[in-house]
Amino acid sequence: MGTLSGGKGNGSIMSKVPGLLGALGAGLTRMGQRLDERRLETEARSAEEAGLDGSTPTADRVRSADRVRSDDSPAPVRGATVTADPPSAQDEAPAADSAGSAGSAGTTAVPEQVPAPPAYAPAVAARPDPVAAVPWGMRVAAEIGWRLLVLAGTLWVLMRVISAVRLVVLAFVAALFITALLQPTVSRLKRMGLPRGLATAVTTISGFIVMGLIGWFVVWQVMDNLDTLSEKVRAGIDELKRWLLNSPFHVTEDQINQVAKNLSDTIGHNTNEITSAGLQGVTVLVEVLTGILLAMFSTLFLLYDGKNIWHWVLRLVPEQARPAMAGAGPRAWRTLTAYVRGTVIVALIDAIFIGLGIYFLHVPMAVPLSVFIFLFAFIPLVGAVISGALAVVVALVTEGVFTAVMVLVVVLLVQQIEGHVLQPFILGRAVRVHPLAVVLSVAAGGLIGGIGGSVVAVPLVAVTNTVVGYLRATAKENALRSAQAPEQ
């Protein structure tokens, strides 16, 4: 009996051991959960102190917190019956969705969020847009600047091309001038009943014959008076020598002879340079003859088929700008025609009156000097000075100081009348250009193209002024029409 009772006692004790172990395990689990919670709270507090956002835990913290919450349920006790309803289809669907989203989140990179600054950090204003930080005036200057750079580059390339084919350009420009001068004669012959081709041929041939005869007459006069001129020059040099010997400058004859000897030695030592200059003169002569031939052919075709050539040029212009250019072209041609005619008339008057003054003062080569005055009159400002100075020098060397002073008076008087009376009356307002623009254009033309550039500069400025004024007026008129169209 004692044995049985002892066995029962032991059996009851052994039956309680699992329950005690389960209670001990549950207590240890709850203690571990509390330690995990305190560890998470400590980490969150340290993250807040380090400037991190404690309200947004990382993925590890979320998983730890979920594990802690899932373990809050008490451990199952032995002998207890736990009943649970089987999961329905509606409960399984969100689980599948969450599993799919978790899988996709594992394969897709999640953009990192920029942490917010801590509360104690100073407030910093956001940086503005760099474009908004640039002042308005500087932006406008930059826009204008790069456009000016593009235009300057275009003009530089154009000048390089013109310099490479300068002979062709000058020949064509000369043909334009001659065409503007001869066009009224062709129109008059056509009104008289001649066909266009015959009128063009007659006008062109007669015009170039007249210009050739004038050139031949000038050369003949120079060659015919060359001996007389050389004698006059030697006499003038002797007269200058005597004046220097008797002058208050105390110049001796030995000094004058030494200067003459130095000049002779310089010429002797520079024979090669003089020869090369002569060869360059031959090259220039060939280029001049080539330019004359090109100008003759260009003039012939411009007189005969100028209208069709202009229509072909218009087809190269964009279609939107074609009406404006079609209206500006005839006005530019009228300006060029008025300039050429007026310049020819003014130059002819200068040559006639200055030539008469030189002739009555008994200066040799009066006719060649008159022709030079006529030709140099096509170079504004500079041409009149050069031709007048040439006439004065010839008078000084050949006839003495008094005759040179009288020639200077005649040249200045005629040029003053021409500048203040003839040019405003003959040229009118069609080609009126400011004197500053004339000076600058002549200087720029001389630097770019020499004498030919100086001749072309002023008519180019006049034609450009006419074209720009017409285009500006046309643009303003079109703007007014487009503004009034909706109102009508």
From TrEMBL:
Its main location: membrane. It is a multi-pass membrane protein. Residues 34-48, 60-72 have a biased composition (Basic and acidic residues). The keyword Membrane applies. Residues 34-114 are annotated as: Disordered. The chain crosses the membrane at residues 198-219, 282-304, 338-361, 367-386, 393-417, 437-463. The keyword Cell membrane applies. Keywords: Cell membrane, Membrane, Transmembrane, Transmembrane helix, Transport. It is found in: Cell membrane. Belongs to the autoinducer-2 exporter (AI-2E) (TC 2.A.86) family. This is AI-2E family transporter.
